[in-house]
Amino acid sequence: MEAQAPENLEELTERIALLLDRLPKRLRQCAEYILQNTQEIAFSTVAEISEKANVQPSAVMRFCQVVGFGGYTDMQRLVRQTIQPKMPDYSERIQNLRESGDDSPTAILAEFVEAGRQSLEQLSATVNETALEQAVETLAQARLIHVMGLRRAYPVASYLSYAFEKLRIPSVLHGGGGRLTHAEAMREGDVLIAITFAPYSPETIELADEAVRRGLPVILMSDTPSLPINGTSVVPLIVSEIDFGAFRSLSATLSLAITLAVATGARRPG
Question: Where are the domains of the chain?
């Protein structure tokens, strides 16, 4: 009788720990790597996990089955759901807003103003001053600043690029059009600002991972401490937005972005 699949991250790690000593060598390598890097499953392919665990992709697939999953996709889905619970889609959000009776323009405006105020106060109280200082110092010394953010993060990325342009700071905006990341444009002495919110943009994660592999500094702006990218060259800046009706504005995030641009401009040599 096959084992039932774990239902949450805690059950997954407990099951792996129980099986660890009984697994064949290659499956044990998978188990040890995944125990130490569980959240990477959410953003990595089978090939990437097999390479990092130093096993064949077939061993990763077999490991998933031994743990109780039908395959790698099932395990990845569980990890992703744990990192970021499913948000209602936009039609559901609008319907919920109508049912609450808060759908007049003035009421919506008041709610977003209040959410923005709370987001800004939260940013002011929780910003990591050491990380912010390190980020600005790194950007001030950069030969070229690469900026990438897609979907909800795209307005922040484009705003940053606009600010850098006006401040005469060399930068390039990566858009991901045609699934082209332009990763080869990154050179020694460059810095990447990667902006992504859960559930994270795979294209942004891919470019950030490439920068880390090359040893380039990465300034990561995100909304959760459960970061999708790790490494000694990664400087995390966490900023979260208070939502209204499951809609989030970018009040705090844009404030952090313009802070980075202006502080960098002030610190760069004239």
Answer: 9-83, 101-267
- How far is Cα 186 from Cα 236, in angstroms, rounded to an integer? 20
Within the chain, strands assigned E span: 145-149, 171-174, 191-195, 218-222, 234-238, 243-244, 247-248
pLDDT tens, position by position, 40-80: 787 777 888 888 899 998 999 999 999 999 888 888 888 87
Fold assignment, 101-267: Rossmann fold (3.40.50)
Q: Which is it for strands 243-244 and 247-248: parallel, antiparallel or unpaired?
A: antiparallel
pLDDT of the residue at 1 = 40
- pTM score of the predicted model: 0.66
Name the fold adopted by 9-83: Arc Repressor Mutant, subunit A (1.10.10)
Q: Report the distance separating Cα 126 and Cα 32, nearest Å.
A: 34
Question: Mean pLDDT of residues grouped by 10 in the chain (270 residues)?
Answer: 75 88 91 83 80 90 90 83 60 68 77 85 87 95 94 93 95 77 84 88 87 92 73 86 76 94 90
Cα→Cα distances 24→28, 52, 63, 187, Å? 6, 18, 10, 42
Q: Do domains 9-83 and 101-267 have the same CATH topology?
A: no
